[in-house]
Fold this sequence. Notes:
Layout: E1 10-13, H1 18-44, H2 58-61, E2 74-78, H3 84-91, E3 95-100, H4 103-112, E4 118-120, E5 133-139, H5 149-159, E6 160-171, E7 199-202, E8 208-212, H6 217-226, E9 229-235, H7 252-255, E10 261-268
Parallel strand pairs: 2-3, 2-5, 3-4, 5-6
Antiparallel strand pairs: 1-7, 6-10, 7-8, 9-10
Domain Methyltransferase type: 76-168
Protein name: SAM-dependent methyltransferase
GO molecular function: S-adenosylmethionine-dependent methyltransferase activity
Amino acid sequence: xxxxxxxxxxxxxxxxxxxxxxxxxxxxxxxxxxxxxxxxxxxxxxxxxxxxxxxxxxxxxxxxxxxxxxxxxxxxxxxxxxxxxxxxxxxxxxxxxxxxxxxxxxxxxxxxxxxxxxxxxxxxxxxxxxxxxxxxxxxxxxxxxxxxxxxxxxxxxxxxxxxxxxxxxxxxxxxxxxxxxxxxxxxxxxxxxxxxxxxxxxxxxxxxxxxxxxxxxxxxxxxxxxxxxxxxxxxxxxxxxxxxxxxxxxxxxxxxxxxxxxxxxxxxxxxxxxxxxxxxxx
Length: 282
């Protein structure tokens, strides 16, 4: 007897808390890791450090610092996927640790290989001692999917050493006002930029199977500062002429008109640090 096909999840906008978001996204990435790596693996490469669909490469951007200064640095990659960025960092002589919430994503990292640890954990509860890393980075990892970004940012601050740098990229907040389409239909405003209601895909029982959270540009800046960081730079990569590929709602058409990625370059601030209660590790 043929098994009935699973119904497509329903897309909606509704609240989703920390626990529901974490559970849904762990499951989604475990189920979709194979397809993701098949579809995007060539673009990402095995050992490139790409900040987003525009193709901005850390070799050119040097947002973590000059490559020659990465040697010997302890670096935490958050939302590492198949750990392409960690593999590039290791090639520069750094000592990366690749962390992801998805076991299946890390299996792809193991398949490709690399001389660095792989850690399956939630970014909101990092399993590392205080001051374990010199640098932290995240290319579209964790922060777009968590209900409480300050929880993650404070955890990252905790595991960074004084003066440590965090660089992370997320979908540019302005994109939330437009349909997620690569063609002309993705160029007309369809919703309020200020509507922070999460995007949720849910099953027939109403259980979230995918969650993405929206923060305005101002929200992101306030999150960074309130979590004990100093914002050093905000990079909005332009779409390069060489990149003719589409990635979901990203495309040359849209990329030449509106930003698609926002990259936050932050340094751990020793002034006005957030209190340890409620976010430090025991």
